[in-house]
């Protein structure tokens, strides 16, 4: 009788352990916890992403010292990002910053690369003309070749220097809209070639 109780007790304990093992999978629990906390699921070091058009033409290239993807919010942070935008029949824009993040296209927004801290955008034409834009932050929409900022912006274009409270730039159409506020107006200084 005692041995029957021992065998039944051991069987119940083994059944409970087996049930606990299959129902309480620690791997799936930790995966759910990480997803709920939005821990990163992907790291890339010194990586480059290239986006091509449907015709096989390179549209833009995004590189960074470090890419970190967060699955819950579906955004990717960027350490020292560098973005090269290619326009049809034009030289590329090279945009650099200390930090950034890539927000993918969704039903609610366009794909956007948000850049901040020491943002610099440079374009050098084949005729030697250089356009250099500096600001504290810049939102770039690579699919549209468009960028905007509501931070102060400084633009140097060979003999013209412009400062503004913000900027909307259509790189494809080569159209720049300079923004002003009550406290910060658009200011352009033109230096003639004889005074340089």
TrEMBL record:
Pfam family, any one: LptC
Record key words, sorted: Cell inner membrane, Cell membrane, Membrane, Transmembrane, Transmembrane helix
InterPro entries linked: LipoPS_assembly_LptC-rel, LPS_export_LptC, LptC
Cellular component terms (Gene Ontology): outer membrane-bounded periplasmic space; plasma membrane
A GO molecular function held by the record: glycolipid transfer activity
NCBIfam families given in the database record: LptC_YrbK (TIGR04409)
PANTHER family linked: LIPOPOLYSACCHARIDE EXPORT SYSTEM PROTEIN LPTC (PTHR37481:SF1)
Protein name: LPS export ABC transporter periplasmic protein LptC
Originating species: OM182 bacterium
């Amino acid at each position: 009788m005692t041995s029957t109780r021992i065998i039944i007790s051991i069987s119940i304990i083994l059944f409970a352990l087996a049930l606990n093992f299959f129902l309480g999978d620690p791997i799936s629990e930790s995966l759910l916890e990480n997803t709920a906390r939005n821990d990163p699921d992907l790291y890339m070091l010194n990586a480059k992403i290239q986006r091509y058009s449907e015709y096989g033409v390179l549209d833009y290239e995004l590189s960074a010292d470090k890419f970190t993807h967060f699955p819950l919010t579906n955004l990717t942070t960027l350490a020292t990002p560098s973005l090269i935008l290619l326009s049809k029949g034009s030289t590329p824009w090279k945009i650099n910053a200390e930090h950034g993040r890539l927000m993918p296209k969704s039903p609610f927004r366009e794909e956007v690369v948000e850049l901040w801290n020491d943002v610099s955008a440079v374009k050098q034409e084949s005729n030697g003309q250089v356009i250099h834009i500096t600001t504290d932050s810049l939102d770039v929409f690579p699919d549209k070749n468009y960028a905007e900022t509501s931070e102060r912006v400084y633009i140097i274009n060979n003999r013209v220097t412009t400062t503004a409270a913000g900027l909307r730039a259509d790189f494809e159409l080569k159209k720049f809209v300079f923004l002003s506020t009550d406290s910060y107006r658009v200011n352009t200084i033109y230096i003639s070639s004889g005074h340089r």
